[in-house]
Amino acid sequence: MFEGLLESLESAEIITIFRHIHADMDALGSQYGLKEWILEHYPEKRVYALGKDRDDHLFPLTDEVEDSVIANSLVIVLDCANKERIDDQRFALGKQILAIDHHPFQDSFMDQEYRFVSYAATCEILTEFFLQTGKSLSKQVATFLYRGLLTDTCSFKTNNTTAHTLKIAAALCEAGIDLVQCNQDVFDVARNEFEFATYLRSKATRESNGLVWCILETEEFEQYGLTASQAKEQVFQFQNVQGFEIWCVFTKNEIGLYDGSLRSRKKAINQIASHFHGGGHACASGVKNLNCQELEECLAELRQLLNP
User: What is the pTM for the complete model shown?
Assistant: First the structure.
């Protein structure tokens, strides 16, 4: 299942770990969980977590390294299926590139991959690997991993949550994580986010076919103290609503185009996302850098999916 992975980690003197852009907690949890686990068991190694920093107190700041460090490293790309979405394109400098991911295959940028699309999260994959090595799993590593597992399954409510997912969650609990604190850290919201959620729901367009969408300009989310990425992540506000089949939030980014988070109850939307510079899971995908015409075309394809 993980043939050669431990050997690759053990033989590398330098390891650089990459994630996808607009990192969610599965990307961050797997990245810092892997970094911490390697350093705990192989403290002599040089291990770096790379990507743009984000306003998130639950995870450490990312590392800064020269190109030469990456060029002499084993590169591990986590939770990302296509090279365009890797946060820090210097990953391509690496001596060897491994990918560990649960998204459907999109792009052959790696020398070796460990891809398990039936798993709900990359954190689930890494936990399985750590357990198979027989090495200890610390509370800190387990906490990083549990945050990612918790969010990518929306508290174990998504349709890719399996008996295996729950077994992995139980193993993380056995490592001594604080379940109550983890839930509070992940799901408690500040007042500005609460108020933004009210605004988002009020502005959303609800179509009779079950499509729900909202397009946000920069000033609309900045007035609540949110970044474009943070605002887009609020797409979960529309889940679990009867009659909502596909829901999306689009936010204007720093170059004046629109990024979007797409979610679906049952319909596969990842192929549509791939038409608009994105991709992802069957029922949870993203798009990026859409102009106004592309945004309308994306919505039109989603309507067509609901009204074939």
Answer: 0.83
